[in-house]
Amino acid sequence: MAELKEDKKKQWLSLGKAAYLSAYQRMVHFSAKAVNSNASAAGVRIIDRADLPYISVSSVGPALVPLDYFNGANTATASNQINSFVLNNLRDRFKEIDEDEVSFIKQMTTRYDFADLAGEIDCHLKQIIMPDEAGNDLCLTPLHSSGLSKLINDTERRIAQENDDKKFSLFRHAGMNYGGSNTQNIGGLANELKKPLFFGAPEEDMDIRKSLAIHYKGFSYMPTTQVDDYLDWLDEACSPDKAKTMPQKLEEERLLKRIVRSSFLEADRQFAYLTKNKANFPGEQLLSSDLDRVFHGLIFEEERNNDWFIDFGNAVADYIKNKKRKKTIAGKRVDIDAIISNQDAITLQGLISDIARTLSQTTARSTI
After folding, report:
1. How many CA atoms lie within 13 A of 270 on its CB side?
2. Which of 332, 38, 29, 51 is nearest to 193 (CA)?
3. Largest CA-CA distance found in the chain, in angstroms, rounded
4. In this predicted model, what pLDDT tens digit does every residue of 242-253 receive, in sequence order?
């Protein structure tokens, strides 16, 4: 803020060390009164600085953010003079200064004395319930910082003065009222809260969301149409209590190749998509390490060892065995199960593993 003209400056009031200490012990960065003036007096003072990627009391530095009273205006004068020291504008705001008191304020504000006024959360305050790392409920109470608001508003006012433009604004503001005609009962800086900032919400990028879902959860590689074709053929051309003829075995191999080839083609599409969006992933790793190795082998061909082909065969055979299909029976659409015995499922797994191994050796991804 610019220095006031001499006739606009306030008179420094000598209050005594006890008054400053009492006021300082009850000054906070965040006040419950700013949320609801009917709430019981309570507040939070931040002590340590934190390296955060956004503007906050912790990232700016608690020692640089003005504190405010929260338990009535009886300490307003002491709080105002303390904050003038914190903001380094004592000589800009006051005519004459008691150097002994300023020296005491400097000494006092390097300590972290704070009155213990802990109590229950007032019913006038909002609470947000979120899970903690152990899955238990954690109640958070949002509070406003009038001191941080003052720093932001002062920055806007300074830039407006530098540009000789009283209407200059860095941000979009709303207009809100605090405390009616007795704003001073909320806090000495409560007026700084009357112009909250508006920010546009970030737009959701569906491509990022989709790629992250694949990265962490995998993708569907089971070709439903081809599996249904195989099961329909099995129902119509084969009998569960008879061995398959050679022509039936050849047809089964053809249908299973369609299933495996479709799975590999889907993996190729997902590989290209994940590669295109790898900047969205931690460490630019295409898949999360938590995904099972069937997914990893589908995306990374070099991971397709003998154990992987067995796992892939098991996954596809299990899907086929448990696949439900819609059929019209006696004029009604019903779900039917695949009629595949456990022994047939083991045979099916072996066939699929062998087909997958052969296709992997004869069809490189770069040629698809």
Report:
1. 26
2. 29
3. 109
4. 888 898 889 999
Whole-number Å distance between alpha carbons of 328 and 276: 43
Q: What is the pLDDT of residues 177-186, one digit of tens each?
A: 766 677 777 7
Locate tokens 């006031």: which residue? Answer: 4
Q: How many residues does the chain have?
A: 368
pTM score: 0.51
Q: Is 90 exceeded by the pLDDT of residue 141?
A: no
pLDDT above 90 coverage of the chain, percent:
24
The single-letter DSSP state of residue 173 is E
Contact 90, 3 (CB under 8 A): no
Task: Tell whether the model's pLDDT for residue 257 goes beyond 90.
Answer: yes
Range with top average pLDDT, 82-91, 262-271, 317-326: 262-271
Return the structure tokens found at 233.
């053929």
Domain boundaries, the chain: 6-197, 206-367
Q: Which helix (H) or strand (E) holds 322?
A: none
The gap between the terminal CA atoms of the chain, to the nearest Å, is 67
Neighbours of 251 (CB within 10 A): 16
Residues ≥6 apart with Cβ < 8 Å to 30? 43, 44, 45, 46, 57, 143, 144, 145
The closest of 83, 101, 103 to 93, measured between CA atoms, is 83
Burial code (b: 16+ CB inside 10 Å, e: under 16) for 139-165 equals: eeeebbbbbbbbbbbeeeeeeeeeeee
- Tell me the Ramachandran region of residue 317: left when phi exceeds 0, alpha when psi lies from -120 to 50, beta otherwise: alpha
Cβ neighbours for 327, distance < 8 A, ≥ 6 positions apart: 333, 334, 335, 336
pLDDT confidence band for 238 (50 / 70 / 90): confident
Q: Is the pLDDT of residue 75 over 90?
A: no
Amino acid at 156: E
More confident residue, 349 or 101: 349
Long-range contacts of 289-298, Cβ-Cβ distance < 8 Å, separation of 24 or more: 290/216, 291/216, 291/217, 291/218, 292/218, 295/218, 295/219, 298/221, 298/263, 298/264, 298/267, 298/270
Q: Are 339 and 239 spatial neighbours (Cβ–Cβ below 8 Å)?
A: no
